[in-house]
Design a protein that fits this description.
The protein has 213 residues and is mostly helical. It contains 12 helices and 2 strands. InterPro entries: DUF247_pln.
Length: 213
């Protein structure tokens, strides 16, 4: 210690009844109830994160989707809105080929709802409070992603109309690259568990065997 400096000693008498500030009590409660295993499970489930604001501002165009959103983070934004109605057409086509009722997919996704929500860090309140909306999002975006992954990039998907804007030969060659580019964006992702469950229902498994990925 430099010459002339005095040490600072806080004298707390034994048995003193020091009144806690309002912010202290919840922290001390968390310390008392701390469970390492529970915290580990929380972070283990998380797989899709928000990009820090400073990084977003540095490379906004490189880190955000141009054409289509997957998941909650960019859903409803102006630049990706035009394709939302088209996703519903793709869902209809997916269900028609699968020959499975929509309710089977809904029930299967509901079974893993907590795991899917836990994949996002953070997940806004609007998606936590409205369970039905989140389930719909996972099914709409999940079925669309599955169909995109199955396209022949040179010839399209012949089960769709010849002039379909994306699944036709022309659409696959000229629009598919932009969609796949958006699928690589860090914030623009779906948990793999969504695709796994949808594919199991599509294959006719009455009780999908869901494993942690």
């Amino acid at each position: 210690m430099a010459s002339g400096e005095e040490s600072c000693v806080v004298d707390i008498p034994e048995g003193s009844q020091h009144q806690q500030s309002c912010w202290m009590e919840p922290i001390e409660d968390q310390v008392t109830n701390y469970n390492r295993d529970k915290e580990e499970m929380h972070w283990k489930n998380t797989s899709i994160y928000r990009i820090p604001e400073f990084a977003m501002k540095m490379k906004e165009t490189a880190l955000t989707p141009w054409v289509v959103s997957f998941g909650p983070y960019h859903h409803g934004k102006h630049n990706v809105k035009p394709i939302e109605q088209y996703k519903q057409k793709v869902l209809v086509h997916f269900l028609y080929k699968a020959r499975r009722p929509l309710i089977h997919f809904v029930r299967a996704i509901e079974q893993v709802l907590d795991k899917l929500r836990g994949s996002y860090q953070p997940l806004e309140d609007e998606w936590i409070k409205d369970e039905e909306r989140f389930v719909k999002l996972m099914i709409m975006d999940g079925c669309f992603m599955l169909e995109i992954l199955r396209i022949d990039p040179n010839n399209g998907d012949k089960s769709y109309p010849d002039h379909d804007p994306i699944f036709s030969t022309h659409g696959a060659r000229h629009k598919l690259p932009y969609i796949k580019r958006d699928m690589l964006m860090l914030e623009n992702q779906l948990p793999l568990l969504v695709l796994k469950v949808l594919m199991q229902v599509e294959a006719g498994e009455s009780r999908p065997q869901v494993f942690v990925i």
